[in-house]
């Protein structure tokens, strides 16, 4: 669905990643029967655009924390290029991000980071992205779900997941709280853990407060799929990936998404 449809092409993708040919090998994808395309969406054929990959100097997140802003992140990449999505294993994804300083809000650098995040999310395409996923250890998330994206998912699944479109949200320094004790178990995926899915239990209803990109306090009350996206992205800011919270025996490749759950796995749905 969203990526290659066979393991051999996945291997080819991996092989060619280093040769920066990834985008050439992505097969067109049709509407999918995904039962858990959370943050990784089907890639419409028309979006088989070259996906520039910026070579990112690998550094531990502690050095990145110390110097990301003064070092002028973003100025190094050539104009027109999008940052690469950082993959699991990179320390920046496994350690907490730091708060955006009030003085940096509205600055050219921060604005560029936010614009990059939105562009990377839409280019993937995905429904959410956290700054560490482009190598920036800052508490920033972006999310958006559209009618078009939702149209790729089976109707039954959309209903069960309570998935509804919402406009682009940019949240700085988000703080998340649950609004009820209800939870939901569904498959989800992550742009930083490409090609896999697992069931994760999430709060059904949450509230997120933080700042808009221009520094105004905002509060979002969300339920269903939007609540899941918010939890997934806020987890990134704590250095937590969905695989840290998944029901381990449900972990699988995207190709095997629709295969039955193993005996003993919890049932999908709201509880
Ligand atoms: Zn993610």
List key phrases describing it:
Peptide Deformylase, binds zinc ion, 9 strands
Quick overview:
The protein has 271 residues and is of the alpha+beta class. It contains 7 helices and 9 strands. The protein has helices spanning 7-17, 22-25, 61-67, 108-123, 147-151, 155-161, 224-237; strands at 128-130, 140-145, 166-178, 183-188, 196-203, 205-211, 217-223, 252-253, 269-270.
The domain tally reads 1
Range of strand content? 15-25%
**Quaternary class:** single chain
The succession of helices and strands, N to C, reads: HHHHEEHHEEEEEHEE
Please tell me what the overall shape is: globular
Supply the CATH superfamily name.
Peptide deformylase
How much helical structure, as a percent, in the residues? Answer: 10-25%
**Cross-sheet strand order for the largest sheet:** 1-2-3-6-7
CATH class: Alpha Beta
Distance from N terminus to C terminus (CA atoms, Å) equals 28 Å
SS field, number of helical segments:
7
Number of strands: 9
- What structural class do helix, strand and pairing data support? alpha+beta
* Chain-averaged pLDDT: 80
Hetero groups bound? zinc ion
CATH topology: Peptide Deformylase
CATH architecture: Alpha-Beta Complex
Low-confidence stretches: 1-37, 42-76
């Amino acid at each position: 669905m969203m990526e290659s449809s066979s393991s051999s092409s996945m291997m080819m993708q991996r092989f060619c990643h280093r040769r920066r040919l990834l985008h050439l090998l992505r097969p067109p994808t049709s509407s999918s029967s995904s039962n858990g395309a959370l943050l990784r969406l089907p890639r419409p054929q028309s979006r088989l655009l070259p996906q520039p990959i910026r070579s990112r100097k690998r550094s531990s997140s502690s050095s990145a924390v110390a110097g990301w802003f003064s070092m002028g992140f973003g100025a190094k990449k050539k104009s027109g290029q999008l940052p690469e999505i950082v993959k699991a294993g990179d320390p920046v994804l496994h350690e907490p991000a730091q708060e955006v300083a009030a003085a940096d809000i509205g600055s050219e650098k921060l604005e560029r980071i936010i614009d990059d995040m939105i562009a990377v999310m839409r280019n993937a395409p995905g429904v959410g992205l956290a700054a560490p996923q482009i190598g920036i250890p800052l508490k920033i998330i972006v999310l958006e779900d559209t009618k078009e994206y939702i149209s790729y998912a089976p109707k039954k699944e959309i209903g069960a997941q309570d998935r509804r479109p919402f406009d682009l949200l940019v949240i700085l320094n988000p703080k998340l709280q649950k609004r009820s004790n209800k939870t939901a178990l569904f498959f989800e995926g992550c742009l930083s853990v490409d090609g896999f899915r697992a069931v994760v239990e999430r709060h059904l209803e949450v509230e997120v407060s933080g700042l808009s990109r221009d520094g105004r306090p905002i509060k979002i009350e969300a339920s269903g799929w939007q609540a899941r996206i918010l939890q997934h992205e806020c987890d990134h800011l704590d250095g937590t990936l969905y695989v840290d919270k998944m029901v381990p025996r449900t972990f699988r490749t995207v190709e095997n998404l629709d295969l039955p759950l193993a005996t003993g796995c919890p049932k999908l749905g709201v509880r």
